[in-house]
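User: Quick sanity check before I run a bigger batch. Here is a single chain. Can you write out its predicted 3D structure?
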Amino acid sequence: MSAPVLNGARRAIGVTLVLAGALLLLATLAGYAEGPVWQRLNGREDFSRVPLRRPVAPGEPFARLWIPRIGLNVMIVEGTGRQDLLKGPGHLIGSAAPGATDNCVLAGHRDLHFRGLERLRPGDVIQMEAEGRRLRYRVEGRKVIDPSDRAVLASTHEPILTLLTCYPFRHIGPAPRRYVVRARLESAVPLASRQPDAKAGPFLQRSPHGDQPLPASTKGLLPAPVRSWRCNGSRRGGGQLDLPV
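Assistant: Done. Predicted structure follows.
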């Protein structure tokens, strides 16, 4: 084969590789842009008028989450599939509803919405706005577990909130372990109005009656059977958590 032909072939291969890389980069950017767009479109969802125990379709807004310690203020999506977790933290379908006397499980990317979970400490406050109520949780503990450990998904018979993400946080590629934050419900009060209240947070409103003792709540559904947790890694090296698999 002559030199001109070889040079032409090399140029063609080089152009093909560059185009393939550009397309992959565009796909990555498009995926990461989906979350902010979805949050912006659904960020004004008013949960003060939502009836209790309403059905929520996968991929739809589920609740609001605010964690002051790490500056997190996001909408939670129903479901924990690949596309769901690009939108925001996801509620594990089949786990309890927020505020129910059982285990409410939320999962998220370690390099997106849940990248600050490692900064949470026992005693920190987590708040949610869901089903017409403002819920206040208090962090009790944190731990690192193996992907096959399903104990944190089990029914608790207590109003518990479990946050899950992959671990280590700065690991490149599929993360080998899971990071768990466990919090307990302290209070649940009706949402009054959508008027902002700085003391209650950027989107959580104070009830005119103040915080009240935790009322009895309907027991949530048990988590769906999970064999293991697969952390495939997000498009830039980590964070995708698929539940269940």
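The chain has one domain: 43-245.

User: Great, the batch can go ahead then.
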